[in-house]
Write a structure and sequence with these properties.
It contains 13 helices and no strands. It is mainly alpha-helical.
């Protein structure tokens, strides 16, 4: 097996892991168990991993026709969302007796991450699609910066400025995207995309040495100890909820990506590769549909049935949504 195939499988495996983390985060959010807050925070960081990988992938491409690129991105992002939202609006109206025409326009223009839209169904997590579209909008600027090969000191100063701005905003404003994602969080999220774009290849090099795994493991243990200490003393305070936990999770995400990337390069089974590729192919659709499924199942069934049912029906619904979306993709390119 050549390196390119292994490398692709490694990235696919990381994306599957990130989507699984997000899925577990939303499922476990409605289950009671010890240390729930820490587990939820860890699984929620799957969003940052997905942003990093997106930046990494586009950082390895050169785009010549930006209008065509944006068109393809909008089609890939919005068509599955629009199909799902038709279903979600109907379910919300029938099951929860909620429908607001304003929300239709919000989701048509992918503004749900900025403008609050409550369908009482399973669309709350789609705020992320607004964020990823913002990342796509700044991608031409990132490519221009890369091609100009600007002084590295500018990059260092930009990172330092972003960290100062993030800490400042953490203390002085709650403004930001919906679902509790403040501007301080958005700076980190977009920053992770930018980091993936510029130095993703250095973070995930062609050959990951044992030394790198040891170093990232040590850093993760140290960051975990710090997070646990601050959690016991400052949980509920800004210094922990918006600063310490964010940077601690970034270190952990670095370790997870390194380990999973390394594991992916050692996968030789064609069957395993096909399974990983399949789940990576429908992972976006799983993200779109799973919250509606869990809302329909939770509190109506026992916890085991709720968890297993959410996993099974999310997969089935995602498979159908992917198939329908693919038909529309193909038709739009005729």
């Amino acid at each position: 097996m050549n390196f390119v195939k292994k490398r692709n499988i490694s990235i696919q495996l990381i994306r599957v892991m990130a989507m699984t983390m997000i899925l577990c985060d939303h499922i476990l959010m409605h289950v009671s168990f010890s240390m729930k807050s820490i587990v939820i925070q860890i699984t929620n960081s799957g969003v940052l991993i997905f942003l990093f990988i997106s930046g990494y992938l586009y950082g390895n491409k050169h785009v010549n026709k930006w209008m065509e690129w944006f068109k393809n991105r909008v089609i890939r992002i919005c068509i599955p969302m629009w199909i799902f939202m038709v279903i979600d609006f109907i379910v919300s109206a029938v099951v929860w007796n909620v429908f607001n025409l304003k929300n239709v326009f919000i989701y048509i223009f992918n503004l749900q991450g900025i403008l609050a839209a409550d369908t009482r169904g399973g669309a709350g997590q789609l705020w992320f699609l607004t964020l990823i579209m913002i990342c796509y909008i700044i991608t031409p600027l990132l490519q221009w910066i890369r091609e100009k090969n600007l002084n590295k000191n500018i990059g260092i100063l930009t990172v330092l400025f972003a960290m100062v701005a993030q800490i400042f905003l953490a203390y002085f404003t709650d403004v930001g995207m919906v679902a509790g994602h403040t501007l301080s969080w958005c700076i980190i999220a977009i920053g992770v995309y930018v980091v993936g774009y510029f130095i993703g290849n250095k973070i995930l090099p062609e050959c990951i040495e044992n030394k790198r795994i040891v170093i990232t493991t040590v850093l993760t243990v140290a960051a975990s100890v710090m997070v646990i200490i601050f959690n016991s003393k400052f949980d509920g305070q800004i210094i922990y909820d918006r600063i310490i936990i964010y940077y601690g999770l970034l270190v952990m995400d670095l370790w997870l990506c390194t380990i999973v990337y390394w594991l992916g390069k050692h996968i030789k089974s064609d069957r395993a590769i096909k399974i990983i590729t399949h789940f990576d192919t429908i992972s976006y659709e799983v993200y779109i549909v799973h919250v509606l499924i869990l809302f329909l199942l939770m509190e109506r069934f026992s916890v085991p049935v709720y968890i297993v049912g959410t996993l099974i029906f999310s997969y089935i619904a995602a498979w159908f949504l992917h198939g329908i979306s693919k038909v529309i993709y193909d038709f739009s390119h005729l």
